[in-house]
């Protein structure tokens, strides 16, 4: 069975500081990994995804994530936080044989301090 | 121009009632989904439909019945509502079933409160 674990339900950083949101996955087959963002009172929006190929994936709004198989991790980073980045972030996983089924983590709320 | 829309946005009702949530997508996608997000923000898939055909039914109580009259609509009907049904329900759609390649687009959610 697949799963993702997001370390830290709440992360707070200062504006301009590095953002690091942690995600570890568990999968018996090659995983396909996603990061979604949910702004207040809105639905989820895809930030980026890893399928195959380059392990460093760039997404929207300056975010990127690196797939590290040896560490079973897919951490999300952004060099410089902006106030508009405040939101809930979800890591998710699927596998080729699961068709449309995506398994989501429990989410990490990112707060930005002025 | 909303890609995936849901109605109503908020729904407050009494235990035991029957209610429906409607979802429409104007993206021309073949696949639609219902997700439930609980009070701890945990998001879990409930159903997926492809070309009006049920693909995923994630051990959801049979009080929940999705209906897809056409590819652009996927409605969720809930019978005999219980307190534990209180959550935010999200509709989503994607071009095909392939989660790996096709982005899922989410609606704004319907916050259901059962009293």
Summarize the structure.
The complex is a heterodimer of chains A (114) and B (115). With 114 residues, chain A is mainly beta. Chain A has strands at 3-7, 10-14, 19-26, 32-38, 44-50, 56-58, 64-68, 73-78, 87-94, 103-104, 108-113.
Helix proportion of residues of chain A, in percent? under 10%
How many helices of chain A does DSSP assign?
A: 0
Structural class of chain B: mainly beta
Largest sheet of chain B: 7 strands, mixed
Order of H and E elements of chain B? EEEEEEEEEEE
Taking pLDDT < 50 over at least 5 consecutive residues as the criterion, the unreliable ranges of chain A are none
What share of residues of chain B is helical?
Answer: under 10%
Please mark out the parts of chain B with pLDDT under 50 across 5 or more consecutive residues, or reply none: none
Report the largest inter-chain contact: A-B, 22 and 29 residues
Please, what is the average pLDDT of chain B?
Answer: 92
- Please identify the oligomeric state: heterodimer
Supply the number of helical segments of chain B.
Answer: 0
What is the average of the pLDDT values of chain A?
91
**Residues in β-strands, percent of chain B:** over 45%
Radius of gyration of chain B (CA) equals 13 Å
Characteristics:
heterodimer; A: 114 residues; mainly beta; six-stranded mixed β-sheet; B: 115 residues; seven-stranded mixed β-sheet; four-stranded antiparallel β-sheet; 11 strands; globular
Give a verbal description of the structure.
The complex is a heterodimer of chains A (about 110) and B (about 120). Chain A contains no helices and eleven strands. In chain A, the strands form two sheets. In chain A, strands 2, 4, 5, 9, 10 and 11 form a six-stranded mixed β-sheet that branches. A five-stranded antiparallel β-sheet of chain A has the order 1-3-8-7-6, with no helix packed on it. With about 110 residues, chain A is mainly β. Chain B has about 120 residues and is mostly beta strands. In chain B, the strands form two sheets. In chain B, strands 2, 4, 5, 6, 9, 10 and 11 form a seven-stranded mixed β-sheet that branches. In chain B, a hairpin with a 2-residue loop joins strand 7 and strand 8. The termini of chain B are far apart. Classes of the chains: A mainly beta (about 110), B mainly beta (about 120). At the A-B interface, strand 5 and strand 9 of A face strand 5, strand 9 and strand 10 of B.
